[in-house]
Design a protein that fits this description.
about 20% strand, three-stranded antiparallel β-sheet, 13 helices, alpha/beta, eight-stranded mixed barrel, binds 2-phosphoglyceric acid, binds magnesium ion, about 425 residues, Enolase-like, domain 1, TIM Barrel
């Protein structure tokens, strides 16, 4: 066996928020090596695998020395001698070693870094790119359509504005490099508008501009003007995508919009969002209501135009069972796939397959706390995900991913082509908004 694991090492490294995180290095008997770094969320769903931290005073309790020790003492001896190419066996072993439902003993962060590092090592041992290894016997996809943040808010910007992500999707771009070009133009135009208005105050956690606005609609207006100032047609070439991250400002059907001093019930929030969809070319909305407000989320999905993608993040947390349940309830029509929410690649893949089986949209996503790790780009291609979300198009922990996609353009069978428009809800109707 050329992919036999010789050693697994855990290492404490730094993420994009100056917080410690975990890198795992899996080396094979053949000398091949695989490395991966765990990302970390800030607005997390309550059902996510536990991100194991030390507690105490250091770095707000967010150090990872315990999780690194678990890799060295528990995971490393158990994986030595196993076949890195047998991802299912590696992941089952990790799940058994942890032994808890929420992965709180060894930590979802330790598990996902190990699971991804094993995949990297197996690909290196086989002498194939990671996306090819991850595709297995299935057909890999092409490049995914990027969903890119221009303005960052919510938990990623000190709650300066309630809505978390104001993003764009270059729905009219024929290929991946063009989608990035158009988005970078919009990004610069937005920066120019903010600068003219005296509102330029740096960037939020994912590289989008800091939201120095008085209302959420002011952010939407700025995004519209930025698309136009970039010389692009809103709704035809570039659509607006929002992550409301409603669980961060509401529970049990009560929502508090701090910036606007408003209290809304579920119907009030639905009306507000439907109003935005009527007034702006919104093509995708993530977590429109809180994770415990499922009937209201289903009501929103039923009421919003069929060309709008309704994405579940906090509600389904990359868990196949939760995705199937959400589909049964008609809560949404797309799933965000964040491997660290569930803890192993095999379980994340099962979630992706569950979404695919229901003909849902699928968006592989990074977290707000990131690093130079580009595994998710290979996951998106290997698992044929039509979309990818990694934050903005500024800061290197983000552009490491977009640039990896540019590298893959020359390696993939379909080159730089993006999935055809009819793969997306907005492409199935004649026009958007
Ligand atoms: C989200 C992500 C990325 P976080 O909510 O979709 O924007 O944020 O990683 O903080 O959960
Ligand atoms: Mg989200």
């Amino acid at each position: 066996m050329t992919t036999r694991i010789a050693a697994v090492r855990g290492r404490r490294v730094w993420d994009s928020r100056a917080l410690p995180t975990i890198e795992v290095e899996v080396s094979l008997a053949s000398g091949a090596l695989g490395r991966a770094i765990a990302p970390a969320g800030a607005s997390t769903g309550s059902g996510e695998a536990v991100d194991l931290r030390d507690g105490g005073a250091d770095f707000g309790g967010r150090d990872v020395r315990r999780a690194v020790a678990g890799i060295e003492e528990v995971i490393s001896p158990a994986l030595a001698g196993m076949d890195a190419a047998d991802q299912a066996a590696v992941d089952e072993t990790l799940i058994e070693l942890d032994g808890t439902a929420d992965k709180s003993r060894l930590g979802g962060n330790a598990l996902i870094a190990t699971s991804m590092a094993a995949a990297h090592a197996a690909a290196a041992g086989r002498g194939v790119p990671l996306w090819r290894h991850l595709a297995g016997d299935g057909e890999p996809g092409g490049l995914p359509l990027p969903e890119i943040q221009v303005l960052g808010g919510g938990a990623h910007a000190g709650r300066r504005i309630d809505i978390q992500d104001f993003m764009v999707i270059a729905i009219g771009a024929a290929d991946y490099p063009t989608a990035l070009d158009w988005t970078a133009r919009v990004y610069h135009a937005a920066g120019g508008l903010l600068s003219e208005a005296g509102l330029l105050q740096g960037v939020a956690d994912e590289g989008g501009f800091w939201p120095a606005f008085q209302s959420n609609r002011e952010a939407l207006d700025t995004l519209m003007r930025a698309i136009e100032a970039a010389g692009l047609r809103p709704g035809e070439e570039v659509g607006i995508s929002l992550d409301i991250a409603a669980s961060d400002f509401g529970r049990a059907g009560r929502y508090r919009l701090g910036r606007e001093g408003k209290e809304l019930d579920s119907d009030g929030l639905i009306d507000m969002l439907l109003g935005w969809c009527a007034d702006y070319p919104v093509v995708s909305i993530e977590d429109p209501l809180a994770e415990d407000d499922i009937a209201a989320m289903a009501a929103f999905t039923g009421a919003v135009d069929a060309h709008v993608q309704v994405v579940a993040d906090d509600l389904v947390v990359t868990d196949a069972r939760r995705i199937e349940e959400a589909a049964r309830q008609g809560a949404c029509n797309a799933a965000l796939i964040k491997p660290n929410q569930i803890g192993t690649l095999s379980e994340a893949r099962a979630a992706s397959e569950a979404a695919r089986a229901m003909d849902w949209g699928r968006i592989v996503s990074a977290r707000s706390g990131e690093s130079e790790d580009t595994t998710i780009v290979h996951i998106a291609v290997g698992w044929a995900s039509p979309q990818l979300k990694v934050g903005s198009i500024a800061r290197s922990e983000r552009n490491a991913k977009w640039n990896e996609g540019l590298r893959l353009c020359s390696a993939l069978p379909d080159g730089a082509a993006l999935p055809p428009a009819d793969r997306f809800p907005w492409g199935r109707t004649a026009s958007v908004c």
